[in-house]
Amino acid sequence: MLKKILIANRGEIACRIIKTARKMGIATVAVYSDADRRALHVRMADEAVHIGPAQAAKSYLDIDRIFAAIRETGADAVHPGYGFLSENSRFAEALAQAGVTFIGPPQSAIEAMGDKITSKKIAAEAGVSTVPGYMGVIEDADEAVRISAEIGYPVMIKASAGGGGKGMRIAWNEDEARDGFRSSKNEAAGSFGDDRIFIEKFITSPRHIEIQIIADGHGNCVYLHERECSIQRRNQKVIEEAPSPFLDAETRARMGKQAVELARAVDYVSAGTVEFIVDDNRNFYFLEMNTRLQVEHPVTELITGIDLVEQMIRVAEGKPLPFKQNDVTLRGWAVESRVYAEDPYRGFLPSPGRLTRYRPPAETRAGPMADAGNWIDSQPDEIPPRAATGIRNDTGVYEGGEISMFYDPMIAKLCTWAPDREQAISAMHGALNSFEIEGIGHNLPFLSAVMDHPRFVSGDISTGFIAEEYPSGFTGAVLPEAELARIAAAASAMYRVAEIRRTRISGRLGNHERKVGADWVVTIDGQDFRTRIDADRDGSTVTVNDAALRVVSDWVPGRSLAHLVVAGQPLVLKVDRISSGFRLRSSGADLQVRVRTPRAAELARLMPEIQSADQSRLLLCPMHGLIVSIDVKEGDEVSAGQALATIEAMKMENILRAEQPGKVKRIAASEGQSMKVDDIIMEFV
Questions:
Q1: pLDDT digits (tens, 9 = 90+) for 355-385
Q2: Which residue of the set 226, 228, 241, 288 is catalytic?
Q3: Which residue ranges make up each domain of the chain?
Q4: Which of 1, 336, 346, 556 has the most CB atoms lying inside 10 A of its own CB?
Q5: pTM for the structure as a whole
Q6: Is-contact 18 395, C-beta < 8 A?
Q7: Distance between CA atoms of 626 and 622, rounded to whole angstroms?
Q8: CATH of domain 618-684
């Protein structure tokens, strides 16, 4: 039996592993960098060891520092989580030589499957269908362009040791192949310490569907059904669900069988994931095998009731799996939304900073995982209640904590379970609307908008969904007229409550009954709704443009979240007070809502609009990050689309390009400089 596990990771996955280890009675050791000194995983673990500077290469990726922490604490096992050293065969081998248990696959399997070039060759030999491509190592950009032309555009440029969307680019032409090779190589070197690149054919409109497997050291290997991971941005998964709305039972079984056969071909032990791309005709092709726990593993746990971390630990202890393939059932539906510190209104650029507010929705237990231990944190009275639908939030942050620019922008993984897909999506929609995050940019509005998108709701999705449905980026959801009317009714009722509160505080009422005006004009982003309020003890009936809507709410001024029932349907609003109204956020829309008397609304329409300052001659930094390169000089003439500078933040490189022709007047930044949002990088004539 293992007695003490060192977790060679950070953030939500470290916290997740600690929960299961605690349930199993195993002590835990956290490691942390300078940037993570006050991190949640450090608080949760039984012990914590400092391992170096904020840069991952000098801390979480430094094998010598991890081994020093093992020796200091006497840990007899290491769980690597995902990323960092999780697929580093040298690390697994060094642990084996030191007599420390690695909670993961054997070194030989990591080498075989962790290298994407080698894994594709093995998959082909094992009879698994693979994507056409060039499996040799590509030396330079010229060779990348030549090979891409031979394969035929579009192509996918990928890091051999990559994962998590890092070191991946799609190229549709020669210029993109050249730029993509450079960026992929740099990202791969920085994220994995391995800059080898290969190229394969990019299949248009594919679905990304993966099979979870787990194997023990006694010859048992089973697959735990599939996950659909097609909602991606920059090759990074954003929303996952299990099962897939596209697969039928026959295809699921064939994919599962191939995944198991591939695992057996490399004597695989522990949890792993075999990823496929699937075309419109349900033809599937091997993409890669991740020899580790996946980010999206919770949705598999939710539909099977199997705690994957627990099984990884049991297998590492030499125990056989307690179930066979026929024992693995598929019950209900689960959806996972990755909540990132990325600003969707700025092209999803990283947004590190301090969480001035972090209030996730309350967790509830339901379905196969209702009694599983990874719902349990530290105290029995913290176990979430049972419910018809489940909410689970895997996180590694807390209110007042810092989202660092040095690591992945993950804030949380919000998951819901329900008996069917429609209910799971509905539960996710409500949970996202109830999730409060302030202080940084985040993608909650975008996630909410996707949950409402007809194409997603129908299950008609592909890996191109975001690019196809949001070609100009995300600017906020556009709500239908009926929903705006419900929000207008809610705003009227809330404003009435706020006005009563304000006047009472002012002391003007004395002992007299408060008389509140009944007629208001609610202006939502320039659109007027005439409302009339008839209040009673139980709520209000608000007439909006001649339609009577019943509003029931317990909202009081100062509360940042309003739960209402409007016209018989629930409505959740995030609330901030502004002059003469509210800033209300719901379902991916960010609305400026003014509530005025009819006369005040009439006068407001006569006021001139404030013009924004002209910033067209400035290149402003769109995120917190480091300047990797400045690609022009003062006095250079630049054309539209030309690369001007490259910014690195949260392990991703972002190339900033000229929006229009111009001449560089002044360069205000230099390579290696740390920049904040809206800092000036350069000016143009």
A1: 999 999 999 999 888 766 555 544 445 677 8
A2: 288
A3: 4-103, 132-201, 207-469, 481-604, 618-684
A4: 336
A5: 0.83
A6: no
A7: 11
A8: 2.40.50.100
